[in-house]
Amino acid sequence: MLAALDIGASKITCFIGSTQQGPGPLRVAGVGTQASRGVRNGVIVDMDLALEAIRAAVEQAERMAATAVSDVAVSVSGFGVRADHLDAEIPVPPGEITARQTRAAVAAAMRQLKLDGRHMMHASPSFFVLDGQKVRDPRGMIGRRLGVRLTVISVPAAQWRNLVMCAERAHLHVVGAIPAPWASALAALAEDELETGALLVDMGARCTTAALVSGGALAHVETVPIGADHVTQDIAQCFSTPAHHAERLKVMYGSAIASLNEDAQMIDAPQYCDDGSVVQAQMPRSLLTGIVRPRVEETFELLRDLLMARGALRPGHGRRIVLTGGGAQLSGVRELAARIFEGHVRVGRPQRYGGLGDAVSGPAFAVPAGLLRWGIERPGPVNLADAPPEMPQNPVIRAAAWLRDVLWQ
User: Fold this and answer.
1) Among 41, 273, 306, 341, which one has the highest count of C-beta atoms within 10 angstroms of its own C-beta?
2) What average pLDDT does range 86-92 have in this prediction?
C-alpha cells in the first residue's frame, strides 16, 4: 500500500491505494482530509501543528482502507518551486542510438546543474534532439549528434528537509515528491492532452501554479503568489465582514464574470459594527463581482505574462488549458481564463479512478489523486547519481575515455 500526501495551504489530504493493481481504473482504498495547520505557502512554519494535521489525515485514510501505511509520496507547492532547463549535446558513433547514449546525453545535461542550496525534486527529459530534429525517444534511430532538453524542478533545501522531517516524525517514509501542478496534470488531463500538450493551472489557496505538459513529460512549472484565499481576504476587507462570512459569500454568490440584473440582486453580507459586533446587512451582488473579478483577472494575467516571458506560452496558440484546485470551482473562472489565455479552457477533475466518493472527486482533490498515480506508476528517478564523474583533466585519459564510450557501446 502507498499513501499520497498533499500538504496544501488550506487542507492536508491523504489518499491510499495499492500497488497491486490489474488493468482498469486505479482504486483508491482510503481517503483522509484535515484542515491545514502549521503550513504557509507550501512551507512548514509550525512543526507540531503540521505534524498533528498530517497524522490525523493519514490515520483517517488508514481507517477507511483498513490497513497501515509507511511509504508516502508527497507533493510540494509554494512560491519556492523553480524550474530550470538544461541543454546538452553529445556526438554518437555510427549505428543505432542506444539507451546508454541517451543516458550519456542526460548525464551531460545534469553536469550543468547548480543547485545552490536547493533540493532537486524532479528531473525528466522534455525532448531529445537528433541531428537538429526534435524526437521523443531516439533509441533505435540513426544520427551523428544527440541533444536533450532536461527539465529540473527544485525547492529550497530547508523547505524540503522540514517536510521530510515532519513526515518521518509521523512514522512515514518519503519515497518521492513531485510539484503539485504536475500531480494535478497526471490526475485531470486526458491521455491525448498529456501527449499532445496542455497547460494545467492549479488554483490553490495561497498560490496559483501551472504545469506545461508536452509529449507526456513535464516541460515547465510556474507559480504566482496569489490564490483563492486572497479573494476571500479582499471580500472580508471591502465588506468589513469576518473571514468565514467572506468565504461563504465567495462560494455562494461570487463570480468572476458579471451577470444580468446583478445590480438589483441583493445578498446578505454581515458587517462589523463600531463596537466589534456583527450585524446583518445587504449589498448588491454586483459589488461582490467587482471585488472578485479584478483579483482573479490579475492572477491569470500575471501567470500568462510569466509563461510568455519564459517562452512556455505563445499568444493565440490555442493550447488546451485545464483548471484544477479549489479556486477553479468559482463561478465564471473558466470563461475569464478563456479570454485571458486565448484558448479552450475546461475545469478538470480526477479521471480514471475507482473508489472516489463525490466529496473527494472534484478539482480540489486533483493533486492527491495524481500524486497517488505517480507514486504507483512512477518511472525510475533521474538524479545526480546517474551522472558519471567529472572527466579527468589529463587530455590522454580524456581521449581514452572518449574512445571507450564510442567503440565499446
Assistant:
1) 341
2) 93
Using DSSP's 3-state secondary structure scheme, residue 246 falls into: helix
Cell matching residue 151: 527539465
Is the model's pLDDT at 382 over the cut of 70? no
Whole-angstrom distance, CA of residue 209 vs CA of residue 226: 9
> What are the tens digits of pLDDT across the range 322-365?
999 999 999 999 999 999 998 899 999 998 888 788 888 999 99
For 264-312, the pLDDT digits (tens) are 888 988 888 877 788 888 889 999 999 999 999 999 999 999 999 988 8
CA–CA gap between residue 245 and residue 54 (Å, rounded):
27
For 60, list phi and psi in degrees, rounded to 5.
-65, -45
User: Helices marked H in 254-316 — which ranges?
Assistant: 285-309
Distance of CA 285 to the CA centre of its chain: 33
Q: What is the Cα–Cα distance from 272 to 236, expressed in whole angstroms?
A: 10
User: 219 phi and psi, to 5 degrees?
Assistant: -100, -30
228-289 in CATH: which number?
3.30.420.40
Q: Give residues with Cβ within 8 angstroms of 32, minimum separation 6.
A: 13, 14, 56, 57, 58, 59, 60, 61, 62, 63, 64
Q: Are 83 and 151 in contact (CB under 8 A)?
A: yes
> Which CATH entry fits the domain spanning 82-157+381-407: 3.10.50.40, 3.40.50.2300, 2.60.40.420, 3.30.1490.110?
3.30.1490.110
The pTM (predicted TM-score) of the whole model is 0.86
User: Is 80 buried (19+), middle (13-18) or exposed (0-12) by CB count in 10 A?
Assistant: middle
Please check whether residue 182 is in contact with residue 211, taking contact to mean a CB–CB distance below 8 angstroms.
Answer: yes
Identify the DSSP state of 325. S
106: CB partners within 8 A, 6+ apart: 88, 125, 148, 150, 382, 386, 387
How far is CA 354 from its chain centroid? Answer: 22
Cα separations in angstroms, 253 against 115, 160, 292, 323: 45, 38, 10, 20
- Cβ neighbours of 280 (radius 10 Å): 8
CB 288, CB 235: distance < 8 Å:
yes
The predicted-structure confidence for 227-271, as pLDDT tens digits, reads as follows 999 999 999 999 899 999 999 999 999 999 988 888 888 898 888
CA angle (366, 203, 210) in 5-degree steps: 85
Domain regions of the chain by residue span: 82-157+381-407, 228-289
Question: What would the grid cell of residue 139 be?
Answer: 533509441
